[in-house]
Each structure stands twice: as C-alpha cells, then as structure tokens.
Write a structure and sequence with these properties.
By secondary structure, the chain is of the alpha+beta class. It has one domain (about 10-159). About 25% of the residues lie in helices and about 35% in strands. The chain has helices at about 40-50, 115-135, 145-150; strands at about 10-20, 20-30, 60-70, 75-85, 90-95, 105, 155-159. It has a seven-stranded mixed beta sheet. Helix 2 packs antiparallel against helix 3. About 25% of the residues are buried.
Length: about 160
C-alpha cells in the first residue's frame, strides 16, 4: 500500500498518436524514483496505445483521445480515455508489464479503480481543453475544427 503522502509529479506531453482513425494525445507521468533517462520512447508508448484499442469502438466516439502512461512507485499504469458523444469520456485502465521485450497490458485486478490523484488532475486539464475548444466554441466553428483545436492543446508541468 502507498503511504499517505503527496509529492508533485512531472507530466510531459510526448506526441499525438495518429492511427486507426484516431488522434490520441500521449502523456508521461513519473514518480521521483525514475529519471528522464528511464522514460519509455515514443514507439513503446504507441505500442501501448495500439494494444489498448483492440475491440474498443463505439458509434458515438470522436476521433479524439488522450493516454497517460504513469511510472508510479508501485508499478506502471496505462490509461486511455476517448471522447464520446458531446460530453462523455470512455475510459480504460491497465497495468503495464515492462519486464519483457514485448510490453503487455493487463486489466487491473480491481476493475473499479479509474485513476490516481495525479492522473485525475491531468484528466481535469483535458476536460477543460474539451470544454474550451469543443463545447464552448462558437456555433459556426465546424466540428472538425473544434476537434483539431482540442488536439492542439496539451499540458506539461507538475501534477
């Protein structure tokens, strides 16, 4: 079990994954026990995004999502969230087995866990980008432009 303490963690936007008709912003969050030299490269992050998309389509999905790879003290986690309908967020959470050549995603044993405090803060930033760029955009701005504007907004800093 983690201790009841809080220490801010860095968050880095890495890139936007574009494949399978989806644009997915990719973020890295890491605890103090990792250095920037130990962070996974973009090809590894893309493999996690790609693996998480298997059998995950809904007719009301937008082609916009965000993913969080979190190198935490108690393991590595991968979260992906996809915008659905006007104001819904579909979400998946996995643990990452990075001890093998081919990284593997596993569903959490407790499927009711959705995110930790650092991930929730980043999700709130993404929520604000969605509201600002998509939901509060002037009516005459076409949906594709709204989504493009949303995808151009990324967070980097501490959580």
């Amino acid at each position: 079990m983690n201790p009841l303490t809080y220490q801010a963690r860095p968050c880095k936007y890495t890139h936007t994954y574009e494949q399978k008709g989806l644009s997915c912003k990719s973020y890295l969050v890491w605890s103090e026990m990792y250095s920037k030299d130990e962070l996974p490269d973009i090809s590894r992050l893309d493999s996690l995004i790609n693996a998480s998309l298997d059998s995950w389509d809904h007719p009301n999905d937008h082609a916009a999502a965000f993913a969080i790879t979190h190198l935490a003290n108690d393991g590595w986690y991968f979260l992906i969230s996809r915008w659905n309908d006007a104001n819904m967020l579909r979400h998946r959470v996995f643990s990452v087995n990075s001890n093998t050549e081919q990284w593997a995603l596993s569903s959490l044993s407790d499927s009711s866990i959705i995110a930790c405090i650092w991930e929730l803060k980043l999700m709130m930033k993404e929520r604000d980008f969605w509201v600002d760029e998509v939901l509060e955009a002037p009516f005459e701005v076409h949906e594709s432009r709204r989504i493009s504007n949303y995808l151009s907004k990324c967070f980097e800093g501490t959580l």
